[in-house]
Specification:
alpha+beta
Length: 493
């Protein structure tokens, strides 16, 4: 999928599609030094004392997982990024409609009905790239990896020395002049942009940590006005053993560097006295929620749940955000043109959604036989699931497993195959699957990152895989504008 496309498939204003596909297929050189990464990344967020003694724990946390980061970069066409961004904006407009909110919340747990001023931090819009453009796979509400990806994207990395040759450019080409161009690919060249506009701030990973801080402060302002934000608890079950424990420590340092006391805690460490939520004897104003118990149903979350229901703590992301965005039954609404039209969604947004949201439907005993017969066209997911758990490709299903799916709790989503990235692993060229994650807050894309993997769903067990920095390849019109303003023409997203 999405490999080198015939020139006839590329519109004049979308030459970047061919350029990006060419680079992903042919540029095999690693650009990130994984051995030096732990120390280099730790230096971006110096240790802020947390009362413990000893060496800086962050490099060790980062070195624990061998496949957290890929040494490769991912090239994504400006046209695809624009389509994804337009899709995100259309989805945000739909979710704001009374019809959508009414239907989504009607199927949600009671705790999600609580009115919320906060938007919810770090929505993750996950996409696959196909030959027909990007396709939305799912939306997550506590998407991990944003800060790690931003810090890594801002690190120095090696250039792919043969970019110009791959795109048919001479070494001196600065405005797209080609000595021997590939068809329709000569207008996209490779370097790094220095300046961004507010509308495309996600292109500047170096400023992402500051944007993330502003996001948390905006959440606080929405809910608490001018009151001071004094302490944040980063909460997950057994946080020291979590795969992204290093990111928790990075957030702790980021908050502390901005004058906000911060700690990392298990929900069992929280206590609620009826008016104040505390952790280790200290009052907590805001909980950055990394739990996957989205409705706070488990006994371990009792104190947090009570404080949330009493509006004694700001929880972000919160159960209502999950109900509105991450419940996969919502994809059924977003891919149902008739429902969208009846809900008052305009034709332009319906067209945007039709282009990016694969058809999705709830599996019921009544339609189970039809889905079994057409199972190879679908991917089956639990509507409240996350991280690819209990998700199945239709062509791999057994009758026994499908019987469990047909009993309820699943949606069927039309298959949208991931695109591929060729990488060199142990001297051998191999193809890895990739997906793209847009980190979004209040409708604004803050960062774009990728994940490389092998297998049925994304994972961090693939040699050469892991999080990967996204490089935006600009199309001809944008490149000309960049040249006119003195900017370059490939952007770290």
């Amino acid at each position: 999928m999405n490999q080198i496309l015939p020139a006839k498939q590329i519109a004049p204003d979308q030459d970047c599609l061919l350029a990006a596909a060419t680079l992903n297929h042919e540029c095999l050189c690693p650009t990130l030094d994984l051995e030096r990464l732990p120390q280099a990344l730790a230096s971006r967020l110096p240790l802020v004392p947390d009362g413990s003694a000893g060496e800086d724990p962050l490099p060790g946390l980062l070195a624990t997982h061998a496949h957290l980061f890929s040494p490769a970069s991912i090239y994504v066409a400006e046209a695809d990024l624009q389509a994804m961004r337009a899709g995100v904006e259309a989805i945000e407009r739909v979710i704001a409609t009374p019809a959508f909110r009414q239907q989504a919340l009607a199927q949600a747990p009671a705790i999600a009905q609580l009115p919320q001023a906060a938007a919810g931090v770090f929505l993750g819009y996950d996409f696959h790239l196909g030959d027909d453009g990007p396709r939305l796979i799912e939306i997550n509400t506590n998407a991990g990896g944003a800060l790690l990806n931003a810090l890594v994207a801002a690190l120095p990395r090696a250039a792919c020395a043969h970019h110009g040759a791959l795109l048919g450019l001479s070494a001196s080409a600065s405005a797209g002049t080609a000595d021997h161009p590939l068809p329709d690919a000569s207008a996209a060249t490779v370097s790094v942009i220095d300046a961004v506009s507010p509308a495309t701030a996600y292109r500047d990973p170096a400023s992402a940590p500051a944007r993330f801080l502003a996001m948390f402060r905006e959440e606080w302002r929405r809910a608490r006005g001018a009151r001071p934000l004094r302490r944040i608890a980063i909460v997950d079950a057994a946080p020291a053993g979590q795969f992204l424990a290093a990111e928790f420590e990075c957030f702790r340092r980021l908050f502390e560097s901005d004058g906000i006391a911060a700690l990392i805690a298990d929900p069992d460490e929280l206590a609620f006295d009826g008016s104040v939520l505390s952790c280790r004897g200290e009052p907590v104003d805001l909980v950055y929620n990394r739990l996957t118990d989205f409705a706070l149903d488990e006994p371990a979350q009792a104190a947090l749940r009570a404080a949330y229901l009493a509006d004694a703590v700001l929880l972000t992301p919160h159960p209502q955000a999950h109900a509105l965005y991450a419940d996969k039954r919502n994809l059924c609404l977003l891919s149902d043109d008739a429902w969208l039209a009846a809900a008052g969604v305009d034709a332009a947004d319906r067209a945007r959604l039709a282009a990016i949201v694969p058809h999705t439907a709830v599996v019921t005993p009544a339609n189970a036989d039809a889905f079994w017969n057409e199972r190879r066209q679908y991917f089956f997911k639990p509507w409240g699931g996350y991280g690819g758990k209990a998700a199945y490709r239709g062509d791999k299903l057994t009758r026994r497993v499908f019987g469990e799916i047909a009993a309820g709790g699943y949606v069927a989503q039309q298959v949208a195959p991931p695109s591929l990235r060729r990488v060199r692993i142990d001297g051998e060229a191999r193809e890895l699957k990739l997906d793209l994650r847009l980190y979004v807050y209040a409708g604004e894309v803050q960062l774009v990152a990728a994940r490389l993997y092998q297998g049925q769903t994304t994972n961090f067990r693939t040699h050469g895989g892991g999080f990967a920095t996204v490089i935006e390849v600009l199309c001809a019109a944008a490149m000309a504008a960049s040249a006119a303003t003195g900017e370059a023409d490939v952007v770290p997203a």
